[in-house]
Write a structure and sequence with these properties.
Blueprint (H helix, E strand, L loop, with lengths): L9 H13 L2 H8 L3 H15 L4 E4 L2 E4 L1 H25 L7 E7 L1 H18 L3 E7 L13 E5 L8 E8 L1 E6 L8 H4 L2 E4 L7 H9 L5 E5 L2 H9 L5 E4 H4 L5 E3 L9 E7 L7 H16 L1 H4 L8
Parallel strand pairs: 3-4, 3-5, 8-9
Antiparallel strand pairs: 1-2, 5-12, 6-12, 7-10, 7-11
Helix pairs in contact: 1-2, 1-4, 2-3, 5-10
């Protein structure tokens, strides 16, 4: 007698994995690019083929049964194996061609990386770049991205890469505005929000700036820089952002205690892929050429 599990295809396992991860059919359907009725119909067919339910339906969502937990665990393992094989095969590409997905922050992209990536594309037109911006780190092990350019003092152990520079932060104000002799003690402040609470400057502002002097908080460095330039308040910015904008002026030297490392990272299975390798080398060289700006060594005149 044929074992029921052998009648399942990989698409069936993907569907089970999606429902288990999202716990509801509409979200699973969106994740799979299907409509809700198709997911419902296919799930019923899968359960019929197995002869037992994989999920219990509750008001809070779909919960795995013991059998469902076993099948979902198998689906996750198969997905990991397929992802690993895909990474290894990608590493066998003979020439630098194809697509590279880069994860970084909006400020690193707009104030530092865009000219570097434009030069890279000119040198390697067969490589397409897919840029993903946002402060949360993406999961490179699941191919959410191929390369990450991040400011962090603790890169994930599962990734490999280069510490390209040390990002300096300094206190800035609007150029041409009258600033107090001690802006840290009497000026209005703007700072980054709780979504970036891992940054040392955010923790400093939370501890040192009285709530009554805090004019606004921002969830992006770009928004913070624009607020400082508009005269909303003084605030800490990366030197590669603050020193490059004529509307900003340094009010104090960079504080080494606020600095963080700039890392260029990839997954170990991809580091020798030609298209990833040439991008890593290009970015490392380009960042090295801008190290003085990044590390705050050459401020413009106030």
């Amino acid at each position: 007698m044929k074992e029921p599990a052998r009648t399942l295809a990989w698409d069936d396992f993907r569907l089970i994995d999606a429902v288990a991860a999202t716990r509801n059919l509409p979200a699973a359907a969106a994740r799979l690019g299907l409509d809700h009725s198709t997911v419902f119909r296919r799930l019923r067919a899968i359960e019929a083929a197995l002869g037992q339910p994989l999920f219990e339906r509750h008001r809070a969502g779909y919960a795995l049964t013991p059998a469902g937990e076993e099948v979902a665990a198998l689906a996750a393992r198969v997905d990991e194996d397929i992802t690993a094989v895909t990474r290894r095969l990608a590493g066998q590409a003979p020439v630098p061609a194809g697509e590279v997905r880069i994860a970084t922050s909006d400020s690193l992209l707009s104030d530092l990386l865009i000219p570097m990536l434009a030069a890279f594309r000119h040198a390697h037109p067969a490589i397409r770049l897919d840029l993903v911006t946002g402060n949360p780190a993406l999961n490179l092990s699941r191919r959410d991205a191929d390369v990450a350019v991040r400011a962090t003092d603790a890169p994930p152990d599962a990734l490999v890469g280069r510490r390209a520079a040390r990002i300096a932060w300094a206190l800035y104000g609007a150029a041409g505005a009258a600033h107090p002799a001690d802006p840290a003690g009497s000026a209005s402040w703007v700072c980054l929000g709780d979504n970036l609470a891992g940054l040392k400057v955010v923790r400093f502002a939370q501890a040192a700036v009285a709530p009554g002097r805090l004019a606004a908080r921002f969830d992006t460095v770009l928004g913070l820089a624009q607020a400082v330039a508009a005269g909303m308040g003084v605030g800490h910015l990366p030197c590669f952002v603050g020193d490059a904008q004529p509307g900003l002026v340094r009010l104090a030297p960079p504080d080494p205690a606020h600095a963080s490392d700039l890392w260029i990272l990839t997954h170990p299975d991809l580091r020798h892929t030609p298209r990833v390798r040439v991008l890593l080398d290009h970015l490392a060289d380009a960042v090295a050429a801008k190290r003085a700006l990044i590390e705050g060594a050459a401020p413009p005149p106030a």
